[in-house]
Amino acid sequence: MIRHIIAAVTILLAAWAVWFMAQQDRKAERFAHIQQLIQKTQMEKVHVANTITPISKSEPTAAQTKRKKAEDEASKKLKALRERAGNVMAFKVSPLYKQKCSSCHGVNGEGIIGPKLIGMSEAKVYQALVDFKSGKRKNYVMYGLLSKMNDQQLKDLSKEISTFAEKLKAAGN
User: Fold this and answer.
1) What angle do CA 93, 123, 11 make, to 5 degrees?
2) Cα–Cα distance, 30 to 110 (Å, whole number)
3) Are 115 and 101 in contact (CB under 8 A)?
4) What was the pLDDT predicted at 156?
5) Spatial separation of the C-alpha atoms in residues 158 and 128, rounded to whole Å
6) Which residues contact 132 (CB under 8 A, 6 or more apart)?
7) Are 169 and 87 a contacting pair, CB within 8 Å?
């Protein structure tokens, strides 16, 4: 009876984690879209007639002041979005990681209900995956996720996870 209760709680937690990660993924996509829009607007060129008179740099015009203020505001908004997004979009992960691991270990391995994976070596990750799959380490969720995966997929996941620390550092987070 207790096993059934534990299994039900585990399934509910896993379902919640999947729902939560789907919500985070939607937010990440929205932030990416907003960032693309901001980049597009920054890249657009404004065509001005050839009748421009030079203005001394010591006296900015109202238009220059307004443009500078708008640029500063856009920069602040982009910075706020990046901070709000956190590690949600730190770097790309494979579909295999996203499907099998991200709901518990986070989009970039930062840990949610599962432990943090960032900084683990390829060998350590691979051994843990093999142990979970074989049943040497008891975790029914991990066993269920890994039971139908082949050895090459386990190696691919191990290799990918071992690069998370470098990718996070490269992303500037």
Assistant:
1) 55
2) 21
3) no
4) 93
5) 9
6) 139, 142, 143, 146
7) no
Q: Which two tokens stand for residue 106?
A: 């986070």
User: 32-43 burial, b for 16+ CB within 10 Å, e for fewer?
Assistant: eeeeeeeeeeee
Q: How confident is the model at residue 12 (pLDDT cuts 50, 70, 90)?
A: very high
* pLDDT value for 55: 54
- The first and second tokens of residue 168, run together, are 């996070």
* The residue type at 159: K
Q: Kindly state the tokens that stand for 123.
A: 């060998």
Stated as kind and residue range, the H or E segment containing 77 is: helix 62-85
Tell me the pLDDT tens digit for each residue of 107-149: 888 888 889 988 999 999 999 999 988 989 988 888 888 889 9
